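Example record used in the benchmark description.
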Amino acid sequence: MSQLSHNVFFTLKDQSEEKITGLVNACHKYLKNHPGVVFFAAGRLGEEFQRPVNDQAFQVALHVVFEDKDAHDAYQTIEDHLTFIAENKENWEQVRVFDSYVTQ
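Model output (structure tokens):
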């Protein structure tokens, strides 16, 4: 069975160090350690990666792999996820979500 990889890239209105660090910390506070999560990581853009194929149009990246689609769907409605959105969305210029089925 395939796992579901949920990758989210946040472009911020206020791109200050404080706001970038705050969003990364909020990801760790609210979005990890939930049922069905088999991998979690959140961090900032690696600005030194400047090849033509590197997308630089974000400041914070979130990577969550779920054991299956049901776990992903449940995660979307949990209180921590909704609180994360409510507390942080005001500073989001753009949010891009890439969901894909993956195998190891």
